[in-house]
Amino acid sequence: MKIGQGLVLLVGKMHSAGIREAVVNEASIGAFAEAGADGVVLPAPGTIPGMTVERVRGFVEMAHARNLLAMNGIGTSQEGASLTTIEQLALLSKMTGADMHHIGDAGVLGMAVPENITAWSMALRGRRHTWHRMAASLER
Fold first, then answer.
1. What pLDDT digit, counting tens, does each position of 65-74 carry?
2. How far from 33 is each of 46, 70, 120, 123, CA to CA, in Å?
3. Which of 55, 100, 121, 135 has its CA at 20 to 30 Å from residue 89's CA atom?
């Protein structure tokens, strides 16, 4: 990985976007690693049909075995769902062992609903760590 050099290249898809090919498979993860990617983008469990915790966990393990970062993401408008749904998706995503989490932009003004971003963080890190990150200076 080339972390610390200013750029991190993540490749992959979070959903099928109207195509009939697999969103991700072992061959694509291997090809991404061979091409020099730093990480792979994966659909969060429960965001597209068939993406279970076990299946996504397998893809995360494949990525890690190839020294790639793994990012689970929501790109299916569920980022605007209820707080309960967001909390469930966050916990399912955490169970996969992914290194990063992405919450999409299908809310008002092209961003996820702020309450859902906070709910995702609280589900992953708890209240104390979420509030600390929210209050911390970028200049520290």
1. 999 999 999 9
2. 25, 12, 29, 31
3. 135
10-135 to CATH, choices 3.90.1150.10, 3.20.20.70, 3.40.1280.10, 3.40.250.10: 3.20.20.70
User: How many helices (H) and strands (E) would you count in the chain?
Assistant: 5, 4
Residue pLDDT, tens place only, 5-25:
678 899 887 777 667 778 888
What are the CA-CA distances from residue 38 to residues 9, 41, 112 (Å)?
Answer: 5, 10, 25
Task: State pTM to two decimals.
Answer: 0.86
Collapsing DSSP to helix, strand or coil, 61 comes out as helix
Q: How far is CA 54 from the centre of its chain?
A: 15
